[in-house]
């Protein structure tokens, strides 16, 4: 009797929506970039490329799948369903050691969108079955690339809707802001500047902080806000007063 193989696969999924702060992610086997894809409903912007590099010493099989995202109560999650709005070619590939495979992503959905739509493109490392009689524990990675598309010609309209004082993990007072997007298309909080000011009871300014795009990205990720939605963000700056008056303003990059 031939010995049975003992094989266990451990999956690690790397999501991008909430805290994405870099244009690529690298694991032991593959590097994926970019992790955020912006598409148009027509013209050249309908197509974008996702590159997957095999940084390991063995060939890595990779498969790409699509699922739509929905926004509920300010939170975004995958539906697990592919509506057919995106086409990925090739859908799978065997990437040799040290080689890079490009995958073309194309929007083929409704060209007359009235609101932005969002998707996860999952780049998954396919587990390889070991040889007969071998024992192995295999760690496979999957990466969720955020793909977004908005109505042609629309621009985001982000504004600070409300601001207050909360607490960080150490119990210190920190600003909490709610940002709304009144546009028919999506926007990124990291594509602008955020100014926060605190004043005491007499109106004297006791705190001022201006965060540029890279600083916002480091603290909050890209800060995606979909069309007609709002999101709440907790900032890292510690306020000198727990009961001061807080003001905040967002200015988009020109």
Automatic annotation (TrEMBL):
Tree of life domain: Bacteria
Organism per entry: Sphingomonas oligophenolica
Gene3D superfamilies assigned: Immunoglobulins
Protein's UniProt name: Fimbria/pilus periplasmic chaperone
InterPro entries in UniProt: Ig-like_fold, PapD-like_sf, Periplasmic_pilus_chap, Pili_assmbl_chaperone_N
Residue ranges constituting the Pili assembly chaperone N-terminal domain according to the UniProt record: 47-143
Matching SUPFAM superfamilies: PapD-like (SSF49354)
Keywords, in A-Z order: Signal
Signal peptide: 1-27
């Amino acid at each position: 009797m031939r010995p049975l193989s003992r094989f266990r696969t451990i999956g690690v999924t790397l999501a991008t929506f909430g805290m994405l702060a870099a244009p690529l992610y690298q694991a032991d086997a593959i590097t994926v970039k970019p992790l955020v894809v912006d598409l148009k409903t027509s013209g050249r912007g309908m197509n974008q490329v996702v590159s997957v590099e095999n940084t390991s010493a063995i060939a890595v099989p990779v498969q790409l799948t699509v699922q739509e995202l929905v926004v509920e109560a300010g939170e975004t999650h995958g539906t697990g369903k592919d509506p057919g709005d995106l086409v990925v070619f090739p859908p799978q590939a065997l990437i040799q050691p040290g080689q890079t495979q490009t995958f073309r992503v194309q929007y083929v959905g409704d060209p007359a969108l009235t609101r932005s739509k969002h998707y996860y493109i999952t780049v998954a490392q396919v587990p390889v079955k070991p040889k007969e009689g071998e024992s192995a524990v295999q760690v496979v990675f999957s990466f969720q690339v955020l793909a977004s598309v908005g109505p042609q010609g629309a621009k985001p309209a982000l504004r600070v809707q409300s601001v207050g004082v909360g607490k960080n993990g150490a119990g210190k007072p920190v600003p909490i802001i709610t940002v709304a997007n009144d546009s028919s298309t999506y926007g990124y909080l990291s594509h602008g500047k955020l100014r926060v000011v605190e004043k005491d009871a007499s109106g004297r300014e006791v705190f001022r902080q201006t965060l540029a795009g890279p600083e916002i990205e480091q603290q909050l990720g890209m800060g995606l806000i979909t069309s007609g939605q709002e999101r709440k963000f907790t900032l890292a700056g510690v306020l000198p007063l727990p009961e001061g008056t807080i003001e905040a303003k967002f200015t988009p990059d020109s």
